[in-house]
Design brief:
It is a single chain. This protein is an alpha/beta fold. 24% of the residues lie in helices and 27% in strands. The strands form five sheets. Strands 8-7-9-10-6-11-12-13-14 form a nine-stranded mixed β-sheet, sandwiched between helices. A seven-stranded mixed β-sheet has the order 17-18-16-15-19-22-23. A three-stranded antiparallel β-sheet has the order 2-1-3, with no helix packed on it. The relative contact order is 0.09. About 3% of the residues have low confidence.
């Protein structure tokens, strides 16, 4: 008989206690510990299938596989993965319900199977008939795309060893359970143990495994954060409820950049990669309204042109409001203080609203100049030139600091037809005139504000 033990496990961080406590001692969450019963022999399940013993060797003697990376056929998806599907990798995909996780991964299975590789789609939330209905809607038909409705981990591992697939999709990890564990599916013990064995299988068989994870109301993948540490790559699927565009964002990647994003458009026949994402973040009404400016921000190796809008109006009731969407609230508050102190704009009694068009999130300081210009434009009721793009970080002294990868930003602006660019003076050194865009070099924020009068 296997010895069993009782522990109270936090469902947020995985912290354990021998007795029930009202507040987790690891993450501080209230009422998050749940009683779980586990068998001591379960922890030995992976050890029985360990690899043959290996001795240390020089890294120069390690031989690489002939085909270690397989392109999926979706450029946006390959971008976030670091060039394609890495053999033996484990990828965790999170997102809100209905955002398109299952649709995207089913399309990826189709593209991979069309290249002659075997793929296995394990659905724990639907039947095979429901999966077939969605596949027909997406025009997905391939004999190499295998589908099975299973939640028992032992049977799933058996299917992987029997079919030898190149890609395995587990939809979702919260539905998978190991029979030897007495806790319910979705608990910390089940999720951690199942993910551990699936990732171990990926390393030993060479199959790339995608684990679909639900997102809680706090916006994090349900289950312990240890899942993110175990996986090679962690992707978050984002998108506004009333918009057709979806953003696949990388938060961890052992094989590529962690700043990349992939942009898709949701249509009736599935998710379609967006070839020119800058156009969807620039509205058509910016030519006739004050308080609108275009900035060039970097997402990994890609430059995106994004429209920033600001509305400044007199506060009539109580304290002035400060509402922002798509940018950091503290950053906007700092810029407001700089505009009032260094430029002399009386913004203390004004309501200020700042918004990024298209629902994208901009975090880098290079957007400071654009934010400041939109606020000044709305306050003065002066229209910013529609063919100008603004790039620069604003310091507390009102100085405009240089940013990185300036040439890539300017090339993207020139490609979309912009004629002028307001950039930091320190960034102007070494930029060739062949870019075909007029540069306005500024050292201080006051010089940039003079452009709109």
């Amino acid at each position: 008989m296997a010895k069993t033990s009782v522990a109270y496990v936090c469902q947020h961080c995985g912290w354990k206690s021998l007795k029930w406590v009202g507040r987790c001692g690891g993450c501080g969450e209230w009422d998050s510990t749940v009683e779980e019963i586990s068998a001591a022999s379960v922890g030995l399940s992976c050890k029985s299938a360990t690899l043959d013993r290996e001795l240390p060797q020089p890294i120069t003697n390690v031989k690489l596989m002939e085909c270690s990376c397989v392109e999926t056929g979706m450029k946006e998806f390959d971008r976030v993965l670091g060039g394609g599907l890495i053999v033996g990798s484990a990828v965790l995909v999170g997102g809100t319900p209905g955002i398109g996780k299952s649709t995207l991964l089913l399309q990826v299975c189709q593209y991979i199977s069309q290249k002659g590789y075997t793929t296995l789609y394990v659905t724990g939330e639907e039947s095979v008939v429901q999966t077939k209905l969605r596949a027909e809607r997406l025009s997905i038909l391939s004999d190499r795309l295998l589908v099975v409705a299973e939640t028992n981990l032992d049977f799933i591992l058996e299917n992987i060893h029997n079919t030898h697939p190149t890609l395995v999709v587990i939809d979702s990890i919260q539905m998978i359970y190991k029979p030897q564990l007495e806790s319910s599916p979705g608990t910390v013990s089940q999720v951690r143990q199942c993910a551990n064995e699936l990732i171990f299988t990926a390393k030993t068989t060479g199959s790339a495994i995608f684990l679909v994870g639900h997102v809680t109301k706090e916006g994090i993948i349900a289950g312990p954060k240890v899942l993110e540490h175990m996986a090679d790559t962690v992707l978050y699927f984002e998108g506004e409820k009333f918009q057709c565009y979806r953003i696949l964002r990388v938060v961890k990647n052992r094989f590529g950049s962690t700043d990349e994003i992939g942009i898709f458009e949701m249509r009736k026949n599935g998710l379609i990669p967006v070839d020119n994402p800058s156009e969807i973040f620039i509205s058509q009404g910016r030519r006739i309204s004050a308080g609108s400016a275009i900035i060039s921000c970097m997402e990994g190796t890609r430059a995106l042109l994004v429209e920033i809008q600001a509305l400044v109006t007199r506060a009539n009731f109580g304290m002035p409001e400060r509402k922002v969407s798509g940018v950091d609230y503290n950053r906007v508050s700092m810029i407001l203080a700089i505009l009032e102190k260094r430029i002399g704009l009386k913004l203390g009694g004004q309501d200020v609203f700042v918004n990024i068009v298209g629902g994208v999130q901009v975090e880098e300081p290079a957007a400071d100049l654009g934010i400041a210009m939109t606020i000044a434009s709305s306050f003065k009721e002066k229209v910013i030139p529609s063919d100008a793009v603004f790039i620069g970080e604003v310091g507390l002294g009102g100085e405009i600091r240089s940013v990185n990868q300036i040439e890539i930003r300017l090339k993207e602006a020139q490609r979309l037809g912009f004629k002028k660019a307001v950039i930091p003076k320190n960034n102007a050194k070494g930029i060739g005139k062949e870019l075909g865009i007029e540069l306005s070099e500024v050292c201080y924020l006051s010089e940039a504000v003079e452009i709109i009068g």
